[in-house]
Amino acid sequence: MEMEGNVYRAHCLVLAYPAQGHINPMMEFSKRLEHKGVKVTLVITKSISHTMDKEANSIPFETISDGYDEGGVAEAESIHAYLERFRRVGSQTLTELIEKLSNSGCPVDCVVYDPFLPWALDIAKKFGLVGAMLFTQSCAVDNIYYHVYKGVLKLPLSETEIFLPGSPPLRPQDMPSFIYDLGSYPAYFDMVVGQFSNVDKADWVLVNTFYELEEEVVDWMAKIFPLRTIGPTIPSMFLDKRLEDDKDYGLSIFKPETDACMKWLNGRPRGSVVYVSFGSFVDFQVEQMEEIAWGLRMSNRCFLWVVRTSEEAKLPKNFVEETSEKGLVVSWCPQLKVLAHEAVGCFVTHCGWNSTLEALSSGVPMVAIPYWSDQSTNAKYTMDVWKMGLKAPVDEKGLVRREIAEHCIREIMEGERGEEIKKNALKWRKLAKEAVDEGGSSDKNIEEFVAKLVHS
Ligand code: UDP
Ligand code: 7WV
Q: What are the catalytic residues?
C-alpha cells in the first residue's frame, strides 16, 4: 500500500472516547503503531475537536459525531441521553468515515476503540475488519467490571471484604465509585459494565498497563481473553526515548501555563515541591477544596497547584495572595514536564489512571485523594500493592480533612515511610521504561499485534 510516497503496513482507525484521560492513551498508542510502520487515523468527536489545541507532531485525525456537535455531553439532557445518541449517530458517522476512507484509496484494516464505545466493534465486524478494544483503565479495574458483568460480583456489595481472582482483598471503598456508591451515575455504571457486552467478538483486548505492574490479574484475564498489555502510554521522551518527536501527547483540552510553571520550578531544590492536580474532571465540594488548601498551607511546603478555571471560585478567599511566596496556582500545566522536574518531590492527585501511570513512570510518590470512577481502586493499589504512595483516609462525610492531607504530605516528604515509598517509586519507573523499550513486555505485545495485522 502506498500513501503520499510512504509505504505503510496496514491502516488502523483509533477511536477515542471524548475525554482528556481517554484521548491521551489512544494518541500514544497510535504513535507506537506509526513508529512500527502502521498508518493511523485518530478518530475523535466533532464536539471535542472544537475545544482541543492541536500541538505539533500529533497523529492525523478525523471526526465523527456524537449527535451533539456544539457542546458534547454538556449539551445533552442527561448522560443516558448523551450515550444513547452517541451510539446511534456515532455508529452512523463511523460507518460513513470507513466508507469514505475506503473510497479515497486508503482502506481501513483495523479499528482500535475505547470499550466505553462498544458499538464500534459491531461496525468493524460489519466491514469484516480486525477489532481491537483498548482499555484505558487498569486491568484490576477492568477485572472488577468483568465480574459485575458476569454476575459473579453481586450488587449491592454485602461483604466487608471482596475477593476476586488476581486481586488482593478489597474493601467496598476500594471499589470504583459506580460500584460502592451504587446508583450514583447509573448511565456510567451501565457504560463501564457494558464494556464487556460484545467482548467475544473482539480479536484483541489491549490494556493500557504493563505486565510487571499487574502480573496476577493480567495472567488471570489472559486465560479468558486475547489480552495484551501495551502501556504505559506515556510520550516516549519520558520513558524509552525511542520516538524522537514524542515529547507530548499532542491534543490538549486546556491550555497549559507552561512557561510560568517551568520558570517557577527551575532553581527550586531537588524534591522540595508538592505538585497538586486532580485531572480534567474532578469537581470538588467547596469544603473539600478548603481542606486541601489548608492542608497544603499547614505542610509548610512549596506547592504548584492546578486549579481549573471552573474550580477557582472554590478556593478560600485570598488564598492565592496569602500563599504567593510558597505556592503557584495555575489553571492547567504540562503535567509530564512537571512530574519529570527534579524539584518535584510529591504528587497530590485524584489518582486518575493516566496520572497514576505518569507518576509511576516518573518515580514521583503520590498522596491519593480519589474523587470518583476508578480512582479509589487506583489509590488502593498505589498504596498497598505498588507501595508508592498513600491513600488519604476520609471522615464520615467522605472528606479528606486538612490534618490528614498535611500528615500524608509530611510522611512522604520527611517521614521514614517516605524513604521506602521513594525507593519503590524509582523501581516502578525503571520497570515502566523497560516495558516499552525494545524487547520489553509491552513492546513485544505491540510488535505481535502489528505483525498479525499485516498478515491478516
Ligand atoms: N494533565 C495535564 N495538565 C494538568 C493536569 C492533567 O496535562 O494540569 C493531563 C495528565 O497528564 C493526564 C490527563 O491530563 O494525562 C488526565 O488524565 P487522568 O486519567 O489522570 O485523569 P482524568 O482527567 O481523566 O480524571
Ligand atoms: C469520562 C466520562 C466518564 C468516565 C470517565 C471519563 C472515566 O472515569 O474514565 Br467513567
A: 22, 114
What confidence score (pLDDT) does residue 5 get? 47
Question: How remote is the C-alpha of 200 from its chain's centroid?
Answer: 24
The candidate with the shortest Cα–Cα distance to 173, out of 383, 342, 405, is 383
The number of the ligand nearest the C-alpha atom of 20 reads: 1
Is the peptide bond between 256 and the residue preceding it cis, with omega within 30 degrees of 0?
no
Q: Is the CB of 277 under 6 A from ligand 1?
A: yes
Residue to probe by mutation, ligand 2, list 80, 188, 372, most atoms within 8 Å of CB = 188
User: Which atom of ligand 1 is nearest to 306's Cα?
Assistant: 8
The rounded distance, in Å, linking the Cα atoms of 142 and 164 is 12
Q: Which of the residues in the chain have pLDDT under 70? A: 1-6, 55-57
SS3 label, residue 313:
helix
User: Closest Cα partner for 454 from 38, 108, 121?
Assistant: 38
Look at the alpha carbons of 361, 362, 367, 372 in this order and tell me if their dihedral is positive or negative. negative
Query: pLDDT, tens digit, for every residue of 341-392?
Result: 999 999 999 999 999 999 999 999 999 999 999 999 999 999 999 999 999 9
Domain ranges of the chain: 11-242+438-455, 258-432
Indicate whether this model's pTM tops 0.90. yes
Q: Is the CB of 353 under 6 A from ligand 1?
A: yes
Residue type present at position 50: H
DSSP-derived secondary structure letter, 60: P
Ligand 1 atom 5: residue of nearest CA: 279
State the pLDDT at residue 230: 98
Do the beta carbons of residue 356 and residue 279 sit within 8 Å? no
pLDDT on residue 6: 58
pLDDT of residue 57: 59
Ligand 2 atom having least distance to the Cα of 372: 8
Are 352 and 333 spatial neighbours (Cβ–Cβ below 8 Å)? no
CATH code of the domain made up of 258-432: 3.40.50.2000
Which residue's CA is the nearest one to ligand 1's atom 6?
Answer: 279
Residues 6+ apart with CB under 8 A from 448: 228
Question: With the C-alpha atoms ordered 309, 174, 81, 126, is the resulting torsion angle positive or negative?
Answer: positive
Backbone φ, ψ for residue 377 (5° rounding): -70, -45
Q: Is 354 in the pocket of ligand 2 (CB under 6 A)?
A: no
Give the position of cell 490528614: 404
Please state which of the four CATH numbers 3.20.20.70, 3.40.50.2000, 3.40.50.80, 3.40.50.300 is assigned to the domain occupying 11-242+438-455. Answer: 3.40.50.2000
Residue owning grid cell 448511565? 187
**Ligand 2, pocket-test mutation among 66, 117, 281, 375, most atoms within 8 A of CB:** 281
